[in-house]
Amino acid sequence: MLDPKLIRSDLQGVAAQLKKRGITLDVARLEALEEQRKSLQIKTQDLQNERNVRSKAVGQAKAAGKNVDEILKEVKDLGDSLKVTEELLTKIQSELQDYLARLPNLTHESVPVGKSEEDNLLIRTWGEPRQFSFTPKDHVDLGAALKGMDFENGVKLSKARFVVLRNDVAKLHRALAQFMLDLHTNEHGYQEISVPYIVNAASLYGTGQLPNLKEDLFALAGEEELYLIPTSEVPVTSTLRDEIVEAEQLPIKYVCHSTCFRSEAGSYGKDTRGMIRQHQFEKVELVHIVKPEDSYAALEELTHHAEMVLQKLELPYRVLALCTGDIGFAAAKTYDLEVWLPGQQRYREISSCSNTEAFQARRMGARWRNPATGKPELVHTLNGSGLAVGRTLVAVLENYQEENGQIRIPVALQPYMSGLKVIG
Question: What is residue 62's predicted lDDT score, i.e. its pLDDT?
C-alpha cells in the first residue's frame, strides 16, 4: 500500500507517478474523502473531550449534593452524537482504505516509461540460440513422442490447462526442482522453507493479490475465506506479517518449492497449447526481506541467482527491465528473465524478479527495529522465480532435442537423473 502520509502531503505528485503506469488517480474524490475524514476525526475528538468533561461534572455535582439529571442528559446526548460521528468516521475510513488498497505501487525512477511490453528495456543477453540442422519441434510434440506429456488425460481428470507427466519427463521435472533448491541453498545461501498451499485473505491482501487480482485466484468453498496460492511468494512473505525482526536478523533469504494455482482469467485464448500457461504449475520461489537501504542491491543479487539456474543449464536467455505500463501491481521495479524456446522461435518469460520496497510491508505490518532509533520501521520485500519449473522443463526439452526425438540431459542435471545422459 502507498504511504498515506505521502498521499496527504503530495497528492499531485502521486497522481503524476501513477499516470506513468496508465492509472488516473481520482484526486477530487481522494481530497473529498480526506477532508471528511479530518473533519469527522476532529469532531469525534471534540465530542469525546466534552463527554469526559461532563462526566466528571456529574461526580462533582453529586459530591456537592446537586441534582445531576440535566448533566446526565447532556452526557447521554453527547454519547449519542459521538456514536453517530464514530460510525460516519469508520465508514469514511473504510472507503478511503479500500480506495488506497486498489492503488498500485509507485515505480522506481530507473523504471522505463512505457505503455506495454513493447516498451520494456533490454538489459543484457546470455548465450547464443542453438543453430539446428533440422526443424526443431515444440515441447508438446516432443513430450507426446516421449510418452511423457499427456494433455488429454489432464483434461479428463480436471479441465483444459492441466497436464499429466510420466516416466522420464516426470523425473526430469522433479530433477529440475531439486537442482534449483540445491543451487539456491548450497551456493546462494537461502533458507529452505515449506509453506501451506491454502492461505487466508489477510495473506493475499498483504502481498497485493487482494482485492484487485481476485479473479486470478482459486477460492475454496466453505465458511472461511480461503484460497489456493497463486505463488509461494504469498505465504512465504506473509510469515513476517505483524512481526518485528531485529536488525541482526536481516537480510532474510528464503527459497520455497511449491505448487501454484492460477485461474488465468485474463488470458483467455493465450498459450492454450502446451505447458506455458497452466492452472497448476510448480515454482521455486526466492524471497528477500531486507533493510530499505539494501533493497536495490538485493534485487540485483536475486536476479543474478535466478540467472545462474539458466547459465548452469546452458539455456540462452535475456533480461528485460519492465516498463511502467507492464510492471506488476506491487512492484516498484521488475526484471523479467526470458528463455529462448526453439520450438516457438522466440524468448518467453521464465522468471520475474521484483522489488516491492515497503508496499507489501505496509499492508502486512512487517517491520524491523532500527538500532539507530530503537523504533520499528517497515522492511523492504523482494521476490522472484528461481525458476518456474514447468517452463524450465519446456526450455530443456526444446533446446536439448535431437533429430531422432531424443533429449540430451544438461550436465548439471545428470546427477539428479541417476546418471542418464539422454532420454527417449
Answer: 83
